[in-house]
From TrEMBL:
Residues 1-22 form the signal peptide. Keywords: Signal. The lineage of its organism: Bacteria, Pseudomonadati, Pseudomonadota, Alphaproteobacteria, Hyphomicrobiales. This is SMP-30/Gluconolactonase/LRE-like region domain-containing protein. It comes from the Bacteria.
Length: 357
C-alpha cells in the first residue's frame, strides 16, 4: 500500500461469470489504440492475482475519496481485455458453518478493496479480499474456473476484523484460516506520524475457524503491508512500509531476518521460480505523496521499484526502477504474467506492463 490508501479506503451485459449482470468487456486500449506498456481502464488496481492454470487475472479496486464503486476486475492475459465485477452482481453461496458471525454480503456501496489472495487448499479455490467499506473485514468468495469460459465468483462469507484493526494484505494458511497484516490501529491518532517516523504501528494477525484471531509473535513493525507464506509454511515474509524493510519471521519462534529495500515496501508476490517479487514506492517529499493520495487526483505518479528476493538468503536484485513516471506511478504490486510483470497501483487509471529483463 501507499501511505494513505488505507485511510482513504474508509472514506451491462449478461455474463456467465456472475450468473447476473457484469460489466461490459473492455479492450484495454489506451486512447483508442493498443499500448505495449499499459492496460488502460482499470482504476486503482492495487493488488493482482492469477487464477492458477488459466489466463485470467483478478485485480482489487482501491477506493479513493471520490470513489463509490466496490468491485473487482477480471482481466484476460491473452488479449488484455477486462471487465468490472460488481459486488452487487456476484452470486451468494454463503457458508454459515465456517463464517457464522458474518453480518451478511456487502453491497457495492459498502465495499472498499485492498489486498487479495487465493486459497487453493483441498482442491477448492477461494478468493480472500480485504474490505474497508462499512466494516473492516476479510471477504471470502468461491472461485470456479469454468473450463473454456470465464471463471465465476460467489460470495461465501466474511470474517470481521478485531476492533481498531486497519487491515492491509492477506495470505491463506494451509491448516485453515488466513493471516492478515494490521497496518495500524485506528485508536492511535498519531499513526500517520508514527508511520513516517518508522515507529511500530501494527503487526500480523492470524485467524482460524477454531480459535479466531490471535497476534503473531515477532511481527510488530511500522506499517506491516504485504504478506506471503513460505512454501513450507514455516515463515512469513512481511513488507514493512514505514521502515522500508522486508522481514522473514519464523511462525514457530518469532525469530526475524530482515533486509532494507530502499523503498516503502508494499505487496509481495511469488514468481515462477519461487522468488519473491517486492513492489513499493520511493519519494523525496512525503507530504506531496500524502497530499496526492488524500486528494481526488486520478493518478499519483510517484516513483516505484520492483525487487526480486531469494527467500532463503534474502539476497535481492532490482528488476524495475521508475524514477520519473508520468502516466503511471505509485506501483503497489508486481505479478509475473508470461514474459512480463504487471504492475498495480493505488492511484491510477491503468495497469503497467513491463517486459522481463
Amino acid at each position: 500500500m501507499a501511505m494513505r490508501k488505507t485511510a482513504l479506503a474508509l472514506l451491462a451485459l449478461q455474463s456467465p461469470i456472475l450468473g447476473a449482470v457484469a460489466g461490459e468487456v473492455q479492450d484495454g486500449r489506451c486512447g483508442g489504440t493498443a499500448d505495449e506498456k499499459y492496460i488502460c481502464g482499470p482504476a486503482n488496481a492495487e493488488d493482482l492475482v492469477v487464477i492458477p492454470g488459466t489466463n485470467w487475472i483478478l485485480a482489487s479496486r482501491m477506493a479513493n475519496s471520490a470513489d463509490r464503486e466496490g468491485m473487482f476486475y477480471l482481466l484476460d492475459a491473452s488479449d488484455h481485455s477486462w471487465r468490472k465485477l460488481d459486488i452487487d452482481a456476484i452470486a451468494e453461496a454463503r457458508d454459515k458453518t465456517l463464517y457464522p458471525d458474518c453480518p451478511g454480503k456487502p453491497t457495492s456501496a459498502l465495499q472498499r478493496g485492498h489486498g487479495i489472495a487465493l486459497d487453493a487448499r483441498n482442491g477448492a479455490l477461494k478468493l480472500l479480499a480485504i474490505n474497508h467499506g462499512g466494516r473492516e473485514s476479510v471477504e471470502i468468495f468461491t472461485v470456479t474456473k469454468n473450463e473454456g469460459a470465464e471463471p465465476s465468483l460467489a460470495w461465501a462469507g466474511c470474517v470481521v476484523a478485531p476492533q481498531g484493526a486497519m487491515l492491509n494484505s492477506v495470505a491463506a494458511l494451509p491448516e485453515g484460516g488466513f493471516a492478515v497484516t494490521k497496518f495500524f490501529d485506528t485508536t492511535n491518532k498519531n499513526w500517520g506520524e508514527d508511520l513516517f517516523a518508522g515507529k511500530e504501528t501494527g503487526e500480523v494477525l492470524e485467524w482460524s475457524p477454531k480459535d479466531g484471531w490471535s497476534p503473531v509473535p515477532g511481527t510488530k513493525m511500522s506499517g506491516p503491508n504485504g504478506i506471503a507464506l513460505s512454501p513450507d509454511a514455516g515463515a512469513y515474509f512481511i513488507a514493512e512500509w514505514g521502515g522500508g524493510k522486508l522481514h522473514k519471521v519464523s511462525r514457530k519462534t518469532g525469530e526475524r531476518q530482515s533486509i532494507d529495500t530502499g523503498m516503502h515496501a508494499d505487496n509481495l508476490q511469488w514468481d515462477a521460480e519461487g522468488r519473491l517479487l517486492v513492489a513499493g514506492q520511493f519519494f523525496d517529499d512525503p507530504m506531496a505523496y500524502r497530499s496526492c493520495h488524500m486528494s481526488e487526483a486520478p493518478v499519483c505518479a510517484f516513483p516505484f521499484k520492483v525487487l526480486r528476493v531469494d527467500p532463503t538468503t534474502l539476497a535481492s536484485e532490482t528488476l524495475v526502477s521508475e524514477g520519473e513516471p508520468k502516466e503511471f506511478g505509485s506501483g503497489t504490486t508486481a505479478l509475473e504474467v508470461g514474459d512480463e510483470y504487471w504492475i498495480g497501483t493505488s492511484r491510477g487509471d491503468r495497469i503497467a506492463r513491463i517486459p522481463k529483463p
